[in-house]
Amino acid sequence: MNPNEDTEWNDILRAKGILPPKEGPTEDDLFEEWDQAVREANEKHLSDKELSELDELEDEEDDRVLQQYR
């Protein structure tokens, strides 16, 4: 019996206090997953762009960074 398995039996044992509570994903794990998903979406989005569109996006990003700096 593996206490780390996600089974109905282990859920019952956890509810009765026989097994310790199952550890969920940490905040860092969730952030990394979200960050990876955003990165993949941006890469896919950027791969469909023409060079002039990429230059325009880069200029917009530069403007945003400068606005935040001010």
UniProtKB/TrEMBL annotation:
Region (Disordered): 1-28, 41-70
Compositional bias per record (Basic and acidic residues), positions renumbered to this chain: 41-52
InterPro entries registered for this protein in UniProt: Phosducin-like_chap/apop_reg, Thioredoxin-like_sf
GO cellular component: cytoplasm
A biological process term (GO) from this entry: protein folding
Domain of life: Eukaryota
Residue ranges with Acidic residues bias: 53-63
Homology family: Belongs to the phosducin family.
Annotated protein name in UniProt: Phosducin
Organism: Dimargaris verticillata
